[in-house]
Write a structure and sequence with these properties.
- By secondary structure, this protein is an all-alpha fold.
- The chain has one domain: Amino acid/polyamine transporter I (Up-down Bundle).
- The chain is 68% helix and 0% strand.
- It has 21 helices and no strands.
- The radius of gyration is 22 Å and the shape is globular.
- The N and C termini lie far apart (64 Å).
- The model has no long low-confidence stretch (mean pLDDT 85).
Length: 495
């Protein structure tokens, strides 16, 4: 079979298909399946799961969320295969909804999507900065980390990310492949090292796979387990962002749904290889959840390895995964921003919809700057309240989950008649998979509105619902303003 990269006919077909969807091919199609088959996982903080049950919550939560997310991935893959555009979910709503409601629904979905991609990208970049703090804590245990220290590290992470997105766009597909190998080899190294060393002691299978203690969370045992799903659900929150790269992918109707769906079992397998040996060698849970920055990875590896050098070595593997994820997800966020601007849905859309052909073969440079600026501004909230900033993790999952569920729900309500000719048709399992996807996305929104621990204080309060409403108000306000501007423009045409 001829390779996609060497087959110009496939590029022509993809450009023609994009033209039929209403868009002109502006990006270079330089990515294949292996370049978009990425997962944003493993570096998610585990402190919440440790407090909300411990080993049983971590391992069985990972299994449960992986299974629950798979129907959503299948449903998104089916729709994406028919409408492979960087506009993603809001375009799917426009095509699937009735003529009377499609503009409003696509507008709502678009702002959910753009709010979600900005905040999920922010959380990954800031989380990587917090990983740096955790790594420094191995050698500087007495360092009193101030919020502005973390923010400065965040600026450094963002600087590296922007440099790669702007000046190394041509090699980003290769970097994504390197990231996949780094993750796989890193997981194997962690598995071998912690299994052999186990300086903090070894646990029985009953403890590693069944120990459950929710006392630290304050919640009742049953609900504590669900609260402990937060880090796992966050890991799979960005699966739909693969569609943001649609207009740079060869043969997108085939490769995009494969990438979206296969990201779940691949992520699940890597997660199991990573988590199981850690749970069998887990240090004292109370010590880990008492870490000031709520990022116990550095201390955990130091205690397991029995030395600072060993702990730092394993921490560096996780830090590398974090940086690779930060670059990939920031790139996807910039494409989503560019696509939204192309559809004139944000202020100064003409500026942010431009593709700079002089840089790296063509990139949405202004959209990259906008996405970066939004993240830098939102990151300032951490200087005033870490609790308010942590809400962005929750609101990212809520926004993205709602944006994914909308086109699936619309298609399901239409009797799935629009999906009959999808290249990735789900067949007779389609209705059940769609229904499971919508139910899970709705439950996620409830879950991420809950505080992680009780009793609730100003520090432990989950402000995700407040931030979610704030973004909704901004979206509604700009919708009314845009309608007013259109009305004024139309009126000016008449004497």
């Amino acid at each position: 079979m001829q390779d996609d990269a060497a087959n110009p006919t496939l590029h022509e077909y993809a450009a023609d298909d994009l033209q039929k969807l209403g868009y002109t091919q502006e990006m270079t199609r330089s990515r294949g399946l292996s370049h978009v088959l990425f997962t944003y996982g493993l570096v998610a903080p585990i402190a919440t799961s440790l407090a909300a049950g411990g080993p049983a919550t971590i391992i069985w939560g990972w299994v449960a969320v992986s299974l629950l997310t798979l129907p959503l991935a299948c449903s998104l893959g089916e729709i994406c295969a028919k409408y492979p555009t960087s506009a993603g979910a809001y375009y799917w709503c426009f095509r699937l909804a009735s003529p009377r409601r499609k503009l409003l629904l696509s507008w709502i979905n678009g702002w959910l999507t753009i709010s979600g991609v900005w905040t999920i990208s922010l959380s990954v970049n800031f989380g990587t900065a917090q990983l740096v703090v955790a790594g420094a804590g191995i050698y500087l245990p007495g360092w009193s980390v101030q919020p502005w220290h973390t923010y400065l590290i965040f600026l450094a992470v963002m600087a590296v990310v922007v440099v790669f997105c702007v000046f190394f766009n041509a090699i980003l597909p290769t970097i994504d492949v390197i990231s996949a190998f780094w993750t796989l080899l890193g997981v194997i190294v962690v598995l071998v090292c912690v299994s052999i060393k186990a300086a903090a002691g070894r646990h029985s299978a009953a403890f590693a796979l069944g120990h459950f203690d929710s006392f630290s969370s304050g919640w009742t045992p049953g609900w504590a387990f669900f609260i402990g799903l937060l880090p796992v659900a966050y890991t799979f929150a960005a699966i739909g962002m693969i569609a943001s790269m649609a207009e740079e992918v060869r043969n997108p109707s085939l490769n995009l749904p494969k990438a979206i769906v296969w990201s779940i079992p691949i992520g699940f397998l890597c997660g199991m290889l990573f988590l199981v040996p850690i749970l069998f060698t887990l240090p004292d849970i109370a010590t880990l959840i008492s870490v000031p920055n709520c990022q116990p990875v550095g201390l955990m590896f130091e205690l397991i390895m029995g030395s600072k050098g060993g702990g730092f070595g394993l921490w560096f593997i996780i830090f590398g995964i974090g940086m690779f994820c930060a670059i990939s997800i920031s790139c996807a966020a910039s494409r989503a921003t560019w696509a939204f601007a192309r559809d004139a849905a944000i202020p100064f859309h003409r500026t942010f919809a431009k593709v700079n052909k002089q840089l790296s073969g063509g990139i949405p440079f202004n959209a990259i700057l906008l996405s970066t600026a939004i993240q830098l501004l939102l990151g300032l909230i951490y200087l005033g309240s870490s609790a308010a900033f942590n809400a962005f993790v929750g609101v990212a999952v809520m926004c993205l989950g709602a944006s994914y569920a909308m086109p699936v729900a619309i298609s399901l309500a239409n009797g799935r008649k629009d999906m009959s000719d999808s290249p990735f048709h789900l067949g007779r399992f389609g209705p059940a998979l769609n229904a499971a996807a919508v139910v899970w996305a709705a439950f996620e929104m409830v879950l991420f509105s809950m505080p992680p621990v009780l009793p609730v204080t100003s520090t432990s309060m989950n402000y995700a619902s407040v931030v979610f409403v704030a973004f909704a108000l901004i979206s509604a306000g700009w919708y009314l303003i845009s309608k007013l501007l259109v009305y004024i423009r139309d009126q000016s045409k008449f004497p």
